[in-house]
Amino acid sequence: MTAESTTSPAGPDWGIGHYEETAAQILPVAEDVVARAAIGRGERVVDVGCGTGNASLLAASRGARVTGVDPASRLLEVARREAAARGLEATFVSGHAAAIPLEDDAADAVLSVFGVIFAPDAVPAAAEMARVTAPQGRIVLSAWIPEGAFFELLRMRGEVLGAALGTPPGPPPFAWHEKDALARLFAPHGFHVEQAQGRLPITAASARAYLDRHFTNHPLSIATVATLRPLGLFESFRDRAIEILEAGNESPGSFRVTSRYIVATARR
User: Fold this and answer.
1) Are 101 and 39 in contact (CB under 8 A)?
2) What per-residue confidence (pLDDT) applies to 186?
3) Which of 45, 145, 167, 250 has the lowest CB atom count within 10 Å?
4) Stretch 142-155: mean pLDDT
5) Residues paired with 48 in a beta bridge
6) Beta carbons of 65 and 43 less than 8 angstroms apart
7) Across 130-223, where does the E strand assignment appear?
């Protein structure tokens, strides 16, 4: 249940809670994405779904000219303050993956760390990322591989919320983690896709301690609690969540769950 800020206009408010904690946990993935993008001094970089600025600030520290784009105004302010505190030059603007507020060919590199994967429609999001990418530029994005304890927890959350609200299951999300799906998505824009994998461990004192922090800090979890608690369903949901995480725990005596992710690079 970790992800960079949503790019969906109709998505949850990622400015609530304290997403900064999750951003710190997934910082190693931002480092991986920026390294694979081989950002150079003076390059123009656009970070789609930038959240609190993980990838943006890493790129800026390499001397790039960075624009972070995100719909959550509070997270943009956090990113601006962090840039100022580090003495880095970066611009942060409000926008969505399907409507990036920049001109054509504005970026040598377009990055997205668990951001564009939340776009409600992958096709216009990919088209926008391609539009702002210069002819010799590249798009580098990360996506979770849907497996393991955190994916099972997210799936269970969807089932519980659907049953509580009486909403039917929606269509499956776009397979951002699949190389063939990405190749088909970006091929109309003249891109070919390469892919690598990484692993991210998430740790805590216990599964319960992890969930307690998540329910307090993560925007999706805060929204879940706000929906289920008035219906008297939160305690049973929490108990099932603890069972799922404890079943996937890799570290007896504490808590550790490792999630796999991909980093895809699209070039013309």
Assistant:
1) no
2) 98
3) 167
4) 97
5) 69
6) yes
7) 133-144, 192-204
Count of CB atoms within 10 A of residue 87's CB? Answer: 8
Q: Pick the more confident residue, 113 or 21.
A: 113
Give tens-digit pLDDT for 165-212.
Answer: 999 888 899 999 999 999 999 999 999 999 999 999 999 999 999 999
Task: Decide if 67 contacts 45 (C-beta within 8 A).
Answer: yes
Cβ pair 105, 132 in contact under 8 A: yes
Q: How far apart are CA 225 and CA 38, in angstroms?
A: 40
> What's the whole-number mean pLDDT along residues 89-118?
97
d(CA 50, CA 57): 10
Rounded Cα distance, 125 and 107, in Å: 15
Give the pLDDT score at 11.
57
Domains along the chain with CATH numbers: 20-146+168-203+259-267 (3.40.50.150)
Residue carrying the six token digits 């990484």 = 198
Measure the CA–CA gap between 49 and 43, rounded to whole angstroms.
19
